[in-house]
Request: fold
Amino acid sequence: MKNLLCFLVLITFSSQVLTAPQVRADNKYPYVGKVVEVINTKLYTYIEVEEDCNFWLAASKTDEVSKGAVIGHNGGVTMNGFRSSSLNRTFDTIVMVDKVQVLSANEGVMTHGGNKYCPPSQSLKKTAAVDAEEEKPAQKKHSSSTPPSSSSSNNNSNVFLDIAGIAMKGALQRKFDQNKSDYQRALDANKEQQQEQQAEENAREERLRSARAEIERRDSSRNNEERVTNNNENDAPKSHRTHCLQIDKRYSSMGMLNTCNQRVAFAYCTDRGSFSCSGHQKGLSSVGPNRWTLIGAGVNDGRIHWHECSAPEDEGLYPIETRFEGSELVGRCN
Reply:
């Protein structure tokens, strides 16, 4: 019988702790306490509060709470063995509240009533420590009490559901943070790889440009050396100015007739057409001794101007540095 009474006493105390306390209607915050320690993280502010007992609160992050301040709060959901990954710390008991308000000491007592609060787990621990003298009056007081109503069970169920919801939210938040961190690391790695590839591509292009420049430099140097050698070997031109050609329009086409017994090379231009004397491009051709050749000019291209030079059979020497001056095409033999 005595054990049954003790069990009823514990149930009665438990239901009183888990049930929201009665607060005066003029209180804005039903609980007040003094801040012993404050720890800020990225998302939350952890506050150790001195009320009926010292315990920890967790609220949305705020920079307004400091050590020694008096704060008010509405109570919340109590969690035992709560693990904070950001702090790498496990709290024996912590109360999750929606927000806290910094109050003055007088405001906390006069305006808000100065109610104190202790988490359910610590209240139960304190109840279990009541000595034998306190147990006997408690047994008398509750000997005629009826078992707790179903409302206490409902309150307990709601508290456990809230705790489960908070735990699941915390797990989802940690999973989201981990996925976000993994995704950011993947982006950084991909960006670094792209930068390395771009650097390699730039280096390859630079090597190709350097190689092309070196080839051009060598070709230019070789051409200069060959030109100097040729000039030294032959101080005089290999060809000379001739006057062997005349215009020949046989077969209704524009052509040139060589009247000499030597091969002739010549440059020519016309008043109009593709090889206009006013342009930069001049026609080049050659014709054998006493032969006729067709040129790239039409009968409608106007007058033909030309500059001719002798051309040995074994070399194709055309006039060079040709230009049209006034009414004459001038140049020099190669």
Summary: DSSP finds five helices and 15 strands in the chain. Residues 1-27, 108-114, 122-153 have pLDDT under 50 and may be disordered. The first strand starts at residue 31 and ends at 40. The CA atoms of residues 59 and 97 lie 5 Å apart.
